[in-house]
Amino acid sequence: VQLQASGGGLVQAGGSLRLSCAASGGTFSSYEMGWFRQAPGKEREFVARISRSGGSTYYAGSVKGRFTISRDNARNTVYLQMNNLKPEDTAVYYCAADLNYVLQSPDYWGQGTQVTVSS
Fold first, then answer.
1. Given its phi and psi angles, is residue 25 left (phi above 0), alpha (psi -120 to 50 degrees) or beta?
2. Which band of pLDDT confidence, cut at 50, 70 and 90, is reported for residue 103?
3. Longest CA span, the chain
4. Residue 44's Cα: distance from chain center in Å?
5. In what order do the strands lie in the sheet with 77-82?
């Protein structure tokens, strides 16, 4: 499956962005989906995951209550709504897909989209 992330940009602290990740080349509803991020000089870290049906979600503690992951299986797209953004959210954000557990070495990665939060 191919993943194309979009929606990143520059936003002031306290602002919002919505990232999208469009999938193609596979049966989207078969994949557990996730978002990860990598800040400059740091390792890539988990942000959020969503089950195949969209009925179950899980978040990193640093974003819980501010970010919301969702998916539209009819549109083959997963979203990450990011509210109350903080400068420490600045990173390249990647979507990922896995037929089993996206938290464990995802099979597929998107190309990343830059999110920059100014103070």
1. left
2. confident
3. 40
4. 12
5. 2-6, 17-24, 77-82, 67-72
Report the relative pairing of strands 17-24 and 77-82 from DSSP bridges: antiparallel
Predicted pLDDT at 23: 97
For residue 47, the surrounding DSSP H or E stretch is strand 45-50
Q: What is the pLDDT of residue 26?
A: 87
- Tell me which residue has tokens 């709504």: 81
- Encoded tokens for 19: 């990232």
Token pair, residue 37, equals: 């991020």
pLDDT in tens, 104-114: 889 999 999 99
Cβ neighbours around 18 below 10 Å, total: 13
Q: Whole-angstrom Cα distance, residue 33 to residue 68? A: 13
